[in-house]
């Protein structure tokens, strides 16, 4: 098993490789399309998984799905969000959270998401072995209603935006429901000594995540 981080500015995508097969987790923004595309060319891509519906994680989904002839998977509660990122209000209570929220809203207003069909709706506990990868879907709600993460084998955990490493590793600075964000942080804390891979920032070893 190998988890390759593709840094796309402040956003991360991940290639999860297991033997001859690989899945792509999140797709980045249009600005970094070529970088993500080039990484995908090096593997036998079988699936695109979206941790949630925000534009910085899904903007290249349609392009990559069509090019590599692979399905797109997202939780049902976040599929509508890919068509309108303002369907769910976001909040922040820290200084840096409010700064991030301000710039996030600005960029979202300027950009658009190319519509894409959802081939697979993800659910808690769903395994991705049929796509050649030892990965399990874990619900990590709070950032959005349908946010998910992926436990990769016994060694890694891709957590989307349930946690963020902006400035320092922490519980999500931007959220739709702070109480659920805290619950998701507890789920991650209890997942053992895994490497934690964020939607934003460098990966770190798992720890007790306190809101």
Structural overview:
The two termini are about 30 Å apart. The chain has about 210 residues and is of the alpha/beta class. The protein contains six helices and 13 strands. The model has no long low-confidence stretch (mean pLDDT about 95). The protein is globular. It has a six-stranded mixed sheet. About 45% of the residues are buried.
Describe what is shown at a glance.
The protein is of the alpha/beta class and 211 residues long.
Helix count? Answer: 6
Strand fraction equals 25-35%
Helix content: 10-25%
Q: What structural class is derived from the secondary structure elements?
A: alpha/beta
Q: Give the strand tally.
A: 13
- Spatially, the strands of the biggest sheet line up as 1-2-3-4-5-6
